[in-house]
Design brief:
Blueprint (H helix, E strand, L loop, with lengths): L18 E3 L2 E3 L5 H5 L7 H11 L12 H14 L3 H18 L2 H8 L13 H4 L11
Helix pairs in contact: 4-5
Length: about 140
């Protein structure tokens, strides 16, 4: 399955694929604003901005859109926003650049520790992983 694009998932039963935008299958039974947030790099605010710019009502569902409207959305996203693979690649390159510079933030990324000044004496489990028991720590 390594030849499939990022964000790909199989279509579930009862879900017909109407729109494929930026390499992502958009769910058809959701409202346009919510469905657009399935694309990496587009949040609620950006989705509302796109819908307003194209004159699409926020209450409409993806299944109610015409092919021309889906095409308009696809073109607007391609022209104005960095999404999905390009955005992921850009983020990874920025982190790699910090690591190559060996600046403080880069070292924190390299060690897998919190980057933005959070405490690590306690907490930070998301970044550090599951706690490892230390031998001889009884009593």
């Amino acid at each position: 399955m390594e030849h499939l694009p990022a964000g790909w998932r199989p279509v579930e039963h009862g879900e017909d694929v109407l729109a494929r935008i930026a390499g992502v299958n958009i769910p058809t039974n959701k409202r346009v604003i919510v469905a657009l947030t399935y694309i990496h790099g587009i949040g609620p605010a950006t989705a509302k901005e796109i819908a307003k710019k194209l004159g699409i009502d926020e209450a409409r569902r993806v299944q109610d859109l015409s092919d021309a409207e889906v095409l308009q959305i696809r073109e607007a996203i391609d022209a104005e926003y960095t999404v999905e693979g390009d955005l992921r690649r850009n983020t990874a390159m920025n982190i790699k650049r910090l690591m190559d510079l060996a600046c403080y933030r880069g070292l924190r990324h390299r060690k897998g520790l919190p980057v933005r000044g959070q405490r690590t004496h306690t907490n930070a489990r998301t970044r550090k992983g599951k706690a490892k028991p230390i031998a001889g720590k009884k009593k």
